[in-house]
Design goal:
The structure holds 2 protein chains of 2 kinds. In chain A, strand 6 and strand 7 form a beta hairpin. Chain A is built from 16 helices and 8 strands. The radius of gyration of chain A is 21 Å and the shape is globular. By secondary structure, chain A is α+β, with helices and mostly antiparallel strands. Chain B has one domain. In chain B, helix 11 runs antiparallel to helix 17. Chain B is mostly helical. Classes of the chains: A alpha+beta, B mainly alpha.
Chain lengths: ~375, ~425
């Protein structure tokens, strides 16, 4: 549809000069301090150039100046909607470097927390996506559910957003006594909540019109730009690190890898990416249910020496975060601090695809595409 | 249909006034002077009334939105936050009045005046009750539509004058949307005006009440001879289902015309920041909001006038006919059921007490319904429209500009036109 209008424009004698608009860094739907230099022809977009760096905090350099354990709270602030998962990825990278074993119970707690945080992150993603398209209420309903998860986190580790909960070789605190019951209650009502969101957004006529066939990422394009997570799977590529390179206890858990099918339009459109997140939340809830059922008793943390010095060497480890694959590359010189540190943030790769898919779409579509790739600027800029 | 009504003389506000004061010599001798003062006073009442409504409307919107979203909304200032709007008003008034350095200052300032004037000027012809219209013009409906479009001029001035690209985009969308949606609105209006052959708002309302007749003294009274069902004569229910379709099309077009979600593309906050009023702040911004809520009310009132019986009450006016008996029976059962639910939910009390309370509630509500003055009916019906608009806003996402245009040109206009032709044929060949 937009393609054909674009062709008409190209052959039309009425074509006028483009208008360059700054979308951001202060704009309601750039999800943070992202700046897009947009060249438009009326309502149609000719080119988009993302400008990142407004939230750069030198995370990687900081990492080289603090000890391994001290860097843990900094990882909370990468993708601040999924602090647990960031902690987890960092912990696992260092554990891989130093060859630390994690007790069974701690692995289960880690999976529970990671999957609950994945649900919380996806809830914000679909809530704000509704907001980007003009529907206010789903956001509030999503935050209602997220609030319950935040409450659980608060009871467990005392924090609601930046948790600093994971430790090398385990987690900092055991689950509180009432956790199992309250988490069970949350999961019991969760499916009906998702059904409600389905009626408000997924099956809403206007919502489908706005998202289906818009911002199509073909599998090749998505792979070329290094997209990971739901953004890649929505294009039909079944790459989920929890399945293709299982870490922790994921090889023992039952869950489906969700891929897009082009249900409402072309494979890899905005609706597929949105739907991928909805379905992943159902899978996450399924994983948490299994973990709660099989949760073993025992230690929650391996004893480590007071001064932690990993062996010399280098390691790359990536974990499946809500936004995609979060990777840490650590070079160790055997001291208490990493010699070099690099972070591979999935949102950075997601935002890089914008110029490739934004030619010829309308301004409203750009907002729809930007919302559908679900970026967090804390992770884009690091 | 009451053919007599279309030819009869409808007494104006001035004539009602003259009739009332014909026994006070001083007033009667200076009829023109007092007539002018009367007009001013009435205009002032309407102006202040609408301004007050806007504050109430914002409060309603926030409260309804809050309850839709599982929140409580404003709650701190006054009882259930009822004074929140006053406090907000004070805050807005105290804010710095910013004007961008590169703005076209005259345009930037005048735009607001144009928007406000054209929004408020349309209330002149609104038939608040059988006597209370500032001016009952022969071209009433045409006047509303044409003066109401003046808002658009102001919006374009604001969008251009702000020297902001987002504002300009908002204004561009506004022009496209409002001009297009004038057509389906016109097509729905024309059905009604075709049926009664008049554009006067009072005549449109009176045509929906065949049971009314003019007394010797020039007052509207109920004709006891005519059996009626009250609301069955409203235009929305005539020539079923054609006029109901027209009423629905009108409502959808009115949503687009008054910048309401799902069609609020002119100020879509996630795309255009705030559209044409991005650069306005403080009181200027508040006046834009005032105009927007006034706009919403105008179209609700217009819809009420055209299709939903204007100031006419829900029920028929006399107790003596059998259909009135059936109607009141249904109303009492409904109110009784609601009262039963309400008392069960909120007030813990004994069975006997419950029955008394219910009887009291039924009695009071039924009396209220019967004795509600016509102006209340008019405002209640308009507010019902406003409620639906608010409800939709907090439920639906918004379409894209091309989809909105598609809805107008390829859905509403063909439907409106076919509707117009079909009603015309029905009216002429099967009167």
């Amino acid at each position: 549809m937009s393609q054909s209008i674009n062709q008409v424009l190209e052959f039309s004698p009425l074509k006028t000069d483009g208008m360059t608009i700054n979308m951001g860094p202060q704009h309601p739907s750039t999800h943070g301090v992202l700046r897009l230099i947009v060249t438009t022809d009326g309502e149609f977009i000719e080119s988009v150039e993302p400008v990142v760096g407004y939230l750069h905090r030198c995370k990687e350099k900081i990492g080289e100046n603090v000890t391994y354990a001290q860097f843990m709270p900094y990882t909370d602030r990468l993708d601040y909607l999924a602090g647990m998962n960031n902690n987890w990825a960092w912990a696992m990278a260092v554990e891989k470097l130093a060859g630390i074993k994690v007790p069974e119970r701690a692995e289960y707690i880690r999976v529970i927390m990671g999957e609950l945080n994945r649900i919380a992150s996806h809830l914000v993603a679909i809530g704000t996506y509704g907001l980007d398209l003009g529907a206010w209420s789903p956001l509030v309903y999503a935050f209602n559910e997220r609030e319950k998860i935040m409450d659980l986190f608060e009871k467990t580790c005392g924090a609601r957003l930046t948790y600093n909960y994971y430790r090398f070789g385990g987690v900092s605190k055991d689950l509180p006594d009432e956790f199992r019951e309250e988490c069970g209650k949350l999961l019991a009502g969760f499916d009906s909540f998702l059904d409600e969101i389905d009626t408000l957004l997924s099956e809403n006529y206007i919502f489908i019109k706005r998202t289906a066939n818009v911002g199509v990422f073909s599998a090749k394009l998505a792979l070329d730009y290094g997209l990971t997570g739901p953004n890649l799977r929505a294009s039909g590529v079944p790459r989920d690190l929890r399945r293709v390179a299982p870490y922790s206890i994921y090889d023992r858990l039952q869950f489906d890898v969700i891929v897009g099918h082009g249900t409402k339009g072309i494979l890899g459109d905005c609706w597929d990416r949105y739907d991928c997140r909805i379905k992943e939340m159902r899978q996450s809830a399924r994983i948490v249910r299994q973990c709660l059922k099989d949760l073993p008793e025992g230690e929650i943390k391996t004893k480590l020496p007071a001064v932690f010095r990993p062996p010399k060497g280098h390691v790359f480890f990536a974990a499946e975060n809500p936004k995609g694959e979060l990777g840490f590359y650590i070079v160790s010189d055997g001291s208490t601090k990493p010699a070099r540190l690099h972070i591979r943030g999935p949102s950075f790769h997601s935002v890089s695809i914008l110029p490739a898919v934004s030619h010829g779409v309308m301004i409203a579509d750009l907002v729809a595409i930007l919302g559908s790739i679900d970026i967090v600027l804390g992770e884009v800029d690091r | 249909m009451n053919p007599a009504l279309t030819s009869q003389h409808i007494p104006s506000l001035k004539e009602h006034f003259d009739w009332l004061f014909s026994y006070v010599p001083f007033v009667a001798n200076h009829s023109h002077l007092f007539g002018a003062i009367l007009l001013l006073v009435v205009a002032l009442i309407v102006l202040l009334g609408v301004a007050t409504y806007v504050m109430a409307g914002v409060y309603l919107e926030r409260k309804i939105a809050a309850h839709i979203q599982d929140r409580v909304g404003p709650f701190r200032v006054g009882w259930h936050g009822i004074l929140q709007l006053l406090v907000d008003g004070v805050k807005l008034a105290l804010k710095e009045d910013l004007c961008p350095a590169a703005a076209d200052k005259p345009l930037y300032v005048i735009a607001l005046g144009v928007v406000l004037c054209s929004a408020f000027a349309t209330f002149v012809v609104m038939p608040f009750s059988w006597a209370f219209t500032v001016a009952d013009m022969d071209i009433g409906v045409l006047y509303v539509v044409s003066i109401g479009t003046g808002v658009l001029v102001g919006v374009v001035m604001a969008g251009w004058g702000s020297n902001n690209k987002w504002s300009l985009l908002g204004a561009m969308r506004s022009v496209a949307v409002v001009i297009s949606y004038e057509i389906p609105i016109g097509l729905c209006l024309i059905v009604v005006t075709m049926l009664i052959g008049s554009l006067s708002t009072q005549r449109i309302v009176l045509s929906q009440a065949p049971y009314l007749m003019l007394s010797e003294a020039g007052r509207w009274i109920v004709n006891p001879e005519v059996s009626n069902w009250g609301m069955a004569h409203w235009f929305a229910f005539r020539y079923p289902p054609f006029l109901l379709i027209a009423a629905s099309c009108f409502f959808v077009a009115a949503l687009a015309e008054s910048n309401r979600t799902p069609f609020d593309l002119q100020e879509a906050e996630s795309e255009l920041v705030a559209g044409f009023h991005t650069e306005y702040s403080g009181l200027r911004w508040a006046y834009f909001m005032l105009a927007e809520y006034a706009d919403m009310l105008i179209l609700s009132m217009l819809s009420t006038t055209l299709f939903w019986g204007g100031w006419l009450p829900l029920q028929c006016m006399n107790f003596h006919t059998p259909d009135a008996f059936v109607f009141w029976g249904m109303v009492l059962v409904l109110i009784g059921y609601l009262a039963w639910l309400w008392t069960r939910w909120y007030i813990p009390m004994g069975e006997w007490m419950l029955i008394f309370v219910q009887a009291a509630i039924i009695g009071v509500l039924a009396l209220l319904l019967y004795f509600l003055p016509s102006v209340t009916w008019f405002i209640l019906k308009a507010l019902a429209h406003v409620f639906v608009m608010i409800w939709l806003r907090w439920t639906l996402p918004r379409p894209r500009i091309d989809q909105l245009m598609y809805l107008c040109w390829k859905v509403l206009i063909p439907i409106g036109f076919a509707n117009f032709l079909l009603v015309g044929f029905w009216h002429v060949y099967f009167p």
